[in-house]
């Protein structure tokens, strides 16, 4: 799961059109009616040929890492407009630009309506998705217990173990709501540790990033022209699983990478510019 690029905005015209769509829902009197309306109209609008959603998909693509990778697994191609706040539970966010990310079907499908909050009235963690085959009811007020990659950096909540498992480890203090939020997001909803092919893909990405950095460093030392070096940098940035790269940078910066992989640590010493890629 990766934080998305910031400052990617829609034109006023598209924002106004979204508001028009949203008003059709918000004007309805009950949650049940709003819920039904959102479920009905979203798939009708979210179609190729609808200018609003064609534009939204272009903008969401700009936000993605590499070759349009899914925000959640960073592995598959992102091809579904996903609501962070599920539209079935939050019809009021159905046509809200800030509520959209681009995800793959493998992540979006199982995530479905899974959502939890910390309730405003008692601060407690509360899963608000309805049990299977039951209708959604209006959730109580509260703050999201799901990390929002549009505004938050998932790496503030977890560290990727680069030494052996390539699993995410919660770094927030045990027992706090932030730790609960991290565990709920990474493990319960997105199953980023459980899905073995993702763990393996991260391990593989580590080797790829390392060899790309090694190649860059040796080319730089041998006096390769800057435009060729720039191409190597661009290629590295297109790799899947950019979280692995970010974690490599972080673990070098805080001085723990050398204990895990001294060769890699040395590459960052030789090419400190790589810390900004
Ligand atoms: Zn995915």
Helix content: 40-55%
Mean pLDDT: 95
| Sheet of most strands | 3 strands, antiparallel
For the biggest β-sheet, the strand order reads 4-3-5
Describe this structure in words.
The structure is a single chain. With 277 residues, the protein is mainly α. It folds into 2 domains: 148 residues, no CATH class; 81 residues, no CATH class. The protein is built from 10 helices and 7 strands. It is globular. The mean pLDDT is 95. Bound molecules: zinc ion.
Question: Care to give the gist of this entry?
Answer:
This protein folds into two domains: 12-151 and 177-184, no CATH class; 196-276, no CATH class. The chain is built from ten helices and seven strands. The protein has helices spanning 12-26, 31-45, 51-63, 105-111, 177-189, 196-221, 226-237, 242-253, 257-260, 262-270, and strands spanning 80-83, 100-103, 116-119, 125-127, 142-144, 158-160, 168-170.
């Amino acid at each position: 799961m990766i934080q998305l690029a910031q400052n990617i905005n829609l034109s006023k015209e598209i924002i106004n059109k979204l508001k028009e769509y949203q008003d059709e829902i918000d004007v309805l009197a009950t949650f049940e009616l709003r819920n039904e309306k959102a479920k009905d109209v979203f798939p009708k609008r979210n179609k190729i040929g609808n200018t609003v959603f064609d534009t939204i998909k272009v903008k969401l693509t700009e936000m993605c890492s590499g070759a349009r990778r899914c925000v959640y697994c960073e592995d598959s191609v992102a091809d579904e407009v996903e609501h962070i706040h599920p539209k079935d539970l939050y019809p009021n966010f159905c046509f809200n630009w800030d509520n959209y990310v681009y995800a793959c079907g493998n992540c979006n499908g199982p995530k479905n309506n899974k959502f939890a909050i910390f309730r405003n009235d008692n601060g407690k963690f509360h899963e608000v998705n309805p049990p299977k085959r039951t209708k959604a009811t209006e959730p109580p007020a509260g703050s999201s217990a799901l990390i929002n990659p549009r505004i938050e950096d998932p790496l503030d909540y977890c560290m990727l173990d680069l030494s052996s498992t390539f699993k995410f480890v919660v770094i927030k203090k045990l027992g706090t709501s932030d730790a609960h939020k991290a565990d709920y997001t990474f493990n319960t909803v997105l199953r980023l540790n459980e899905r073995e092919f993702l763990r393996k893909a991260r391990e593989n990405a580590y080797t790829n990033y390392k060899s790309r950095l090694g190649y860059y460093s040796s080319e730089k030392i041998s006096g390769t022209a800057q435009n060729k070096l720039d191409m190597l940098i661009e290629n590295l940035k297109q790799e899947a699983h950019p979280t692995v790269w970010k974690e490599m940078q972080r673990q070098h910066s805080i001085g723990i990478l050398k204990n895990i992989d001294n060769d890699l640590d040395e590459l960052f010493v030789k090419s400190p510019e790589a810390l900004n890629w």
